[in-house]
Amino acid sequence: MKRTTLGGLDVSAQGLGCMGMSEYYGESDWDTSIATIGHALDVGVTLLDTADQYGAGHNEVLVGRGIAGRRDDVQLATKFGIDRSSGDDARVHRGDPRTLSGPATPHCCGSASTTLTSTTCTALLRTPRSRTPSARWPNW
Question: What is the rounded CA–CA span in Å between residue 109 and residue 10?
Answer without folding.
Answer: 20
